[in-house]
Write a structure and sequence with these properties.
Blueprint (H helix, E strand, L loop, with lengths): L14 H22 L1 H9 L21 H6 L12 E6 L9 E5 H17 L7 E4 L8 H13 L2 E4 L5 H11 L3 E4 L1 H13 L11 E4 L13 H9 L3 E8 L4 E4 L7 E2 L5 E6 L12 E7 L10 E7 L1 E2 L11 E2 L4 E2 L4 E3 L2 E3 L1 H9 L4 E10 L5 E9 L1 H4 L9 H15 L4 E4 L2 H8 L10 E3 L3
Parallel strand pairs: 3-4, 3-5, 5-6, 6-7, 18-21, 19-20
Antiparallel strand pairs: 1-2, 7-8, 9-14, 10-11, 11-12, 12-15, 13-14, 16-17, 18-19
Helix pairs in contact: 1-2, 4-5, 6-7, 7-8, 9-11
């Protein structure tokens, strides 16, 4: 581990000390961008920005935002180092559009390891633990590499199984007996189903903890959401949520109290803004905007993540004073206006996750002939309930009942289409994707 990343314990400083610490780090970051970044050099010059006048976190509001489009169309201009210093090339998932490339230096990989070491430690992982990674480490994926580096730095055992293949996951659990797994939470239900179908007593396995990525486990009040409840009802393991993205190169992980992802002040500065770009009051919901700290290859300044969150600043029961981030409410570009009702996809997911006969689903959004949002929910019905070959007409009552559930919860009912389970599973978990696809937006 690089000596620059010995544990700083900034999360335990007072709120004022954290602010002062970040303001010093911000000055260092701005000077680095002024000296090294072609993109930000042009931005500072074009907007007549004197970085020496940016002294406080509040002063960030004087600076323009960086967007995904900037990264996509000016990608090479974000690189702050000579090409020969680049050690690893990573891309975003590209689920919502073209993937963006990130170039990482040796120092960036040290920072990534430090970030995950902090996050795993926050989630209670100890050097004596063995963690089974049900995530890909290839395909230009940052997260899988980050998890491995972080666990290696922490000193914990690592089993790199990759995503999918429930049979291999259970074979590995039985052979190596890890006590922790890391995966997308909806995949937990798949490995539980596989265990039930193959006589595996999963409740008596070595697994005691699951660290979840990519999907929400909790409501805004931090209680388990319907997906989290379904997992806990089946398997009484400890569940930990995390939130991260490639652009941030930083993770927000829950502690044992489960009241939001903890902020690492030495790695990232966070803001929440409204639709007009104004700072939202503490506790209010808005779009997360981040400024990376300590990134050498492609640092970002005031990058708009597109994720809608809120901040919690009261001291956590674990003793940390750093800000905690809420579960993601939705994405700014996922907002639906359907039959006069404003909806974010997680509200639709909650209804489907709490419907016993829905085995899998994907939400498809398009525009109708009048230019209004059209919402189609494709579902697979549980074979144990209606039989593998049940025709759609046999399911008409189920569709009616499901629409009634939607109306009761979100006031409107989307169109519903029953699909073949194998077809839908291949849609949700395509071989080319690193994350399950629950939302397909055709409006663009």
């Amino acid at each position: 581990m690089n000596k620059n990343y010995s544990i700083l314990n900034t999360e335990y400083l007072s709120r004022q000390e954290i602010k002062l610490f970040q303001e010093q780090k911000l000055k260092e970051a701005l000077r680095y961008l002024q000296e090294k970044s072609p993109f930000y050099q042009t931005m500072f010059l074009g907007n007549k920005i004197d970085i020496e006048k940016i002294n406080f976190l509040e002063d960030l509001q004087q600076l323009p935002f960086t967007t995904k489009q900037d990264l996509l169309y000016c990608n090479e201009d974000f690189l702050c180092v000579p090409p020969e210093k680049v050690i690893d090339f990573i891309t975003t998932s590209g689920t919502l559009g073209d993937p963006v490339t990130f170039a990482m230096t040796d120092k960036d990989l040290d920072r990534l390891a430090y970030n995950e070491k902090l996050s795993f430690f926050c989630a209670g992982v100890q050097p004596s633990d063995i963690v089974q990674l049900m995530t890909t480490i290839d395909k230009r994926f940052m997260a899988g590499l980050a998890y491995f580096l972080g666990l290696r730095s922490l000193g914990a055992g690592v089993v790199r199984v990759g995503n999918g293949i429930p049979e291999l996951q259970w074979d590995t659990i039985n052979r190596i007996k890890p006590n922790t797994i890391m995966c997308v939470p909806s995949f937990i239900l798949q490995i539980i189903k596989y265990a039930e179908e193959h006589g595996i007593d999963y409740r008596k396995s070595s697994i005691k903890k699951v660290i979840c990525i990519g999907e929400n486990l909790r409501e805004q009040d931090f209680s388990l959401n319907l997906l989290g409840k379904r997992i806990k009802e089946k398997w009484d393991v400890a569940l930990y949520s995390t939130y991260a993205s490639t652009e941030m190169a930083t993770t927000f992980a829950e502690c044992e109290h489960g009241y939001g992802g903890h902020h690492h002040p030495e790695l990232i500065i966070c803001e929440v803004v409204d639709k007009k770009g104004r700072i939202v009051e503490t506790g209010g919901t808005g779009e997360l905007v981040i400024t990376t700290l300590g990134v050498e290859g492609m640092p970002l300044l005031r990058f708009k993540t597109g994720d809608l969150v809120s901040f919690h600043t009261e001291k956590c029961k674990c003793g940390r004073n750093s800000m905690r981030i809420s579960p993601v409410l939705g994405r700014t570009d996922h907002l639906l206006k359907y039959k006069g009702t404003t909806i974010y996809p997680p509200a639709i997911y909650d209804v489907l996750d709490n419907t016993p006969y829905v085995e899998n689903y994907v939400v498809v959004v398009d525009l109708d002939e009048n230019g209004n949002d059209r919402v189609l929910v494709r579902i697979a019905i549980s074979a144990s309930l209606v039989g593998n070959s049940a025709p759609t007409t046999d399911c008409s009552m189920l569709i009616k009942e499901l629409k009634d559930r939607f109306r009761a919860k979100i006031r409107v009912a989307p169109e519903i289409e029953i699909c073949d389970p194998t077809y839908l599973k291949n849609t949700i978990f395509p071989k080319s994707s690193r994350k399950p696809i629950k939302f397909i937006d055709k409006r663009k």
